[in-house]
Amino acid sequence: MTVNTLMNTNSKMTEQDPRAPMAPAPMVYNPDNSVAWDRMWDNFCVLASAGGPPHRATLLRAQTDANPDSVGYRFACEEIIRGIALVSGLQAAPAQTGWIAIECGKASRARWLSEQINQENVEAYAEETRVFVPVGDNFALKGEIKNVITAVAKTTHYWRDHLATEIKTSLEWEERFKKLARRFFRR
Hints:
Blueprint: E1 5-7, E2 13-15, H1 71-88, E3 92-94, E4 99-103, H2 107-119, E5 125-127, E6 130-134, H3 141-161, H4 165-186
């Protein structure tokens, strides 16, 4: 966790609630006024699943009744997709209304990321090698759009830099066994 204590008004150190949502990172902009998603974080809090603070206090849900033809929806999709590419190197694309699909390359990675993103209080689910994150026509740049990109940045950072190879391998074998079991029991 990046912040363990806070100063109270009497200048005494007090413990911060480790389950309190993390403080937002300040917005950073490029010279063209686009958000510099890849330069906003110099460190990350511990994942919520490991006892760190979740990114949000409440669950951010997909707006499945959004108007995908609206200017707001198209902007939110484009900005979330651009942000995901910058923070994770992963490719994303609009999916069914209210969702953006992120290609993870492996089902084990998609499932792990979706579970971790959910624990950060951003709705997500996995199908095959893709993880789906929410989008909506009412998503604001400094609010919901930033929340989705931050959750993806935080979780992909941990997958890439902190998750042991043995755990990744174990998750991959688990997915293979599930796939084999589905094929076997379908007969």
